[in-house]
Amino acid sequence: METEEGEDRTPLLKESQPGTVPACCSARYNLALLAFFGFFLLYALRVNLSVALVDMVEPNTSLAKNTTSSVCPEHSSTINVPRNTTGEKYSWDADTQGWILGSFFYGYIITQIPGGYLASKIGGKLLLGFGVFGTSVFTLLTPLAANLGVGYLIAVRALEGLGEGVTFPAMHSMWSSWAPPLERSKLLSISYAGAQLGTVVSLPLSGLICYYMNWVYVFYIFGALGVFWFFFWMWLVSDTPETHRSISHAEREYILSSLKDQLSTQKSVPWRPILESLPLWAIVVAHFSYNWTFYTLLTLLPTYMKEILRFDAQENGFLSALPYFGCWLCIILSGQIADYLREKQNLSTVCVRKCFTLVGMIGPAVFLVAAGFIGCNYALAVAFVTISTTLGGFCTSGYSINHLDIAPSYAGILLGITNSFATIPGMVGPVIAKNLTHNNTVGEWQTVFYIAASINLFGAIFFALFASGEVQDWAVSGYHLHRN
Q: Is 452 in contact with 296 (CB distance < 8 Å)?
């Protein structure tokens, strides 16, 4: 390793290594595909309650202090379809509903760092598998918990959050052993894009299930699918290429040789150097900023469309899902583009990560502010919010996988740290936005969009100034900086 000390560190992996193994039917892409479906289900399990809750409460109790704005005219003439009304109704006021929706994040934030640490000790396969399994089982218990009382429901949602909290750190930890450096953007963008598609599918689908069947089936159907996925995951996946049953010899050698100087063999975690690492704090700030906009929109977009733009509930489900469909497409495409730029155009990793983060955070900020200024132009409002969320997809190949660039061996722990901070916006962002929009005026919503855009802008600039694309000296064996 000492002989490489003088090498240029910018173009990745120029030393001789086995030829790239085809992606089709390879073990690493099978892992990405299974992870894709896992995160699809995780996000379906996460957002289905926000749709079902509308049907779970008695109409007169769900009226919050907020009032519908009369700025825009009523937009749509609803076709009356007989809807199912057999589901149990509960008299929960707006504050109680806020606690029910927020309880997930209180569990989710607790298991982030422990999840990353455990993944580095026992491997990501079991942790991710049981994280999804636990979340699915508690989802199946949700109707029972609601019947027993609101305290039980809040507890079950918090337990779901605990289960889901380990999943992203566990997946990052697995990719540290599975993803060749020049395929990181592709593989990670495929696996995490499932989260966006899960949101896209479950928002309208949950609405339809509530409409034609009964809200309890929202939890039974998605919960059962999660349990079903768990058995496939345990059967087909291995923690490392060495332990995989059916991987080809060529692929195993290709992955291991591409990672050989990037991983640490030391058993203890270098906590102090990790917490003193400026490139890590650059990811923390970017992650926090991005999630502020993401969670504010995820929880309040249906409200904005209903109260300001006056779309009816069924249109609302599909239109609320549209921005996340755009984001899903962008994540898949940006992952391919990022690795093409690094491999074929010889762009440095740090340059690609910074450029993609700037596009993925400043772009959404601009269109979000614009969305507040177009009055009652429905088509333009939906278009701007959709473009804003779509551009956010670039961040998946930016700050979002930068943990693997700077410390592959501790990627799960690093993601646990950044995601802990990034969960705070999920807890406070929507609450602040709700308090700012009591009268549901366009001016109030402009303030919400201003705040989100400002935070995004700050995060993008901070990341551009302090991010790194190299393996840090504390992250490889013997604290020795390996130059790529």
A: yes
The one-letter amino acid code at 324 reads Y
How does the average pLDDT of the chain come out, rounded? 84
Q: Which of 456, 362, 479 is nearest to 410 (CA)?
A: 479
What are the C-alpha distances in Å from 178 to residues 187, 227, 229, 472? Answer: 9, 25, 21, 19
Most confident by average pLDDT, 370-374, 433-437, 460-464:
460-464
> Which residues, listed in sequence order, are joined to residue 57 by a DSSP beta bridge?
90
Which sign does the torsion angle of CA 204, 210, 211, 213 carry? positive
Encoded tokens for 459: 């995060």
- The structure tokens listed for 203 are 């928002």
> Is the C-alpha dihedral spanning 463, 469, 474, 480 positive or negative?
negative
pTM of the model: 0.84
Report the pLDDT value the prediction gives residue 444, as an integer from 0 to 100: 85
Beta-carbon neighbour count of residue 26 at 10 Å? 18
Cβ within 8 Å of residue 469, ≥6 positions away: 348, 349, 350, 351, 352, 353, 402, 405, 406
pLDDT at residue 64, as a whole number: 47
| The one-letter amino acid at 372 | G
Mean pLDDT for the stretch of residues 166-171: 94
For residue 374, give every residue at least 6 positions away whose Cβ sits within 8 Å of its Cβ, in sequence order, or none.
380, 381, 384
Residues whose CB falls within 8 Å of the CB of residue 114, separated by 6 or more in sequence, listed in order: 166, 416
Q: How far is CA 248 from the centre of its chain?
A: 31
